[in-house]
Design goal:
This protein is an alpha/beta fold and 410 residues long. The protein folds into two domains: 215 residues, 3-Layer(aba) Sandwich (Rossmann fold), CATH 3.40.50; 127 residues, Aspartate Aminotransferase, domain 1 (Alpha-Beta Complex), CATH 3.90.1150. Helix content is 30%, strand content 12%. It is built from 14 helices and twelve strands. A hairpin with a 6-residue loop joins strand 5 and strand 6. Helix 6 crosses helix 7. The longest helix has 19 residues.
């Protein structure tokens, strides 16, 4: 450790790194070895490799070194960042879910920001022409319908097509302790699910990238050249509290842990907290008045949800803000009981899964990845019966996943 700190100090004198960032790097280096250290925070593993290269970063508000944005930190450390590619919600993370994000120039750094959630979904040949290395540094939450996985694949394809290396600053998966849900069927591929995986996959971004290369997702292109900066002192069973909200509507650790279970409601006529400051922790609808005493009123909130389902109407349902998420950890399963309960309580069952009634509600089958989950709930099947359908697919996925793990499951 002492040698490492001396190295950083001499490195800083040689390249005139700022004292504040050197102090920050020293503080990171002095963490106890039992602490999780993200790939980005292990600057000693990549700074010298980046020096002199023209860097493009795929980044957002979760891309941090210490407590500063990775882009800002690396610029201060003398690294030449020529452009940034921003995913859904934008580089600074202030766009609502699903909103079109335009290209811009970052007001703080003057660096051009190219949106990967606007006119284009992946970097173009022209945009990569003056780039030596692309860095992917985005915190994921471990769910198939979270769009960071799509962005990763698109960036890998662009790098493979244009002969560019992709460095990944790996980060822990807060839902990395369990694998559950139906496997996505091909006919239900969409912007909220492109990969034949279960709802929760228990992989980090780095591991997922290895799987994309290894399982033929890149079969139309050469494999992407990967350089993964691994997380230190980490295994998949470890709890991990995210230091930065990954998106506007995942604004608490509770919402992040409930997200795999509650995002399925996005394809129903139940509001799951959009239009409140407690998204993914409450469930309700006006039609449930008299069946539940807990209530909330969705409103338009700029940067979160400006036109939520049941806007300005009182919804009645379930409050999960104090639900013990250790129960999910113990069962290692998505909670289907809330979905079954809400369906059974909803008075007009023919409309429960009808996404045509409100533009903010998407198709349930594209969320679940198949039609059978919806059909089984309508048929009144038990959670045990529903899960039995998933077993063959989950077994095959778990076996395949083992080939790409960088970290132990326990």
């Amino acid at each position: 450790m002492a040698k490492f700190i001396l190295f950083l100090l001499s490195f800083g004198l040689l390249f005139n790194f700022s004292p504040a960032l050197l102090a920050q790097t020293k503080a990171i280096a002095k963490k106890e070895t039992t602490n999780i250290i993200t790939g980005a925070d292990q600057t000693e593993k990549y700074l010298s490799y980046l020096k002199g290269k023209r860097i493009a970063m795929v980044a957002n508000q979760t891309s941090i070194i210490g407590d500063k944005l990775s882009v800002d930190s690396l610029l201060s450390l003398g690294i030449k960042i020529v452009k940034v590619f921003g995913p859904e919600h934008g580089f600074r993370g202030n766009a609502s879910n699903g909103d079109h994000v335009d290209d811009e120039v970052d007001a703080k750094t003057g660096i051009p920001i190219f949106s990967l959630y606007g006119k284009a979904r992946k970097p173009s040949k022209e945009q990569l022409k003056d780039v030596d290395l692309v860095i992917f540094d985005i915190q994921d939450v471990g769910c198939r319908f979270y769009t960071n996985l799509n962005t990763l694949e698109d960036v890998m394809e662009a790098c493979a097509e244009n002969g560019k290396e992709l460095m990944i600053f790996d980060r822990p998966n807060p839902n990395g302790y369990f694998i559950d849900g139906p496997i996505l069927e091909d006919k239900f591929k969409s912007g909220i699910g492109q990969h034949k995986i279960p709802i929760t996959h228990a992989m980090t971004i780095g591991e997922f990238a290895l799987m994309l290369n290894g399982e033929g997702y890149m079969d139309k292109h050469p494999k992407c050249k990967l350089n993964i900066i691994k997380v230190a002192n980490y295994n998949h069973s470890m709890p991990y509290d995210l230091p930065v909200n990954p998106s506007p509507n995942l604004n608490t650790q509770q919402s992040i842990l409930l997200y795999p279970s509650l995002c399925l409601f996005e394809g129903t006529m139940i509001n799951y907290g959009r239009g409140t400051h407690m998204p993914f922790t409450v469930l309700g609808a006006p039609e449930l008045k008299g069946r539940y005493t807990f209530s909330f009123k969705p409103v338009g909130i700029k940067g979160m949800s400006e036109n939520p389902l049941y806007k300005d109407s009182v919804c009645y349902g379930i409050d999960l803000r104090t639900y013990d998420t250790n129960i999910l950890r113990k069962t290692g399963q998505i909670n289907l009981s809330w979905l079954i309960e809400m369906y059974n309580a909803f008075p007009d069952k023919e409309k429960f899964f009808d996404h045509t009634l409100h533009p903010a509600v998407g198709s349930f089958d594209f969320r679940s990845g198949n039609a059978s989950l919806r059909e089984d709930i309508i048929a009144g099947k038990s959670e045990k019966e529903i899960r039995k359908r998933w077993e063959p697919g989950l077994k095959a996925f778990k076996q395949m996943r083992k080939k790409y793990l960088l970290y132990a499951d326990k």
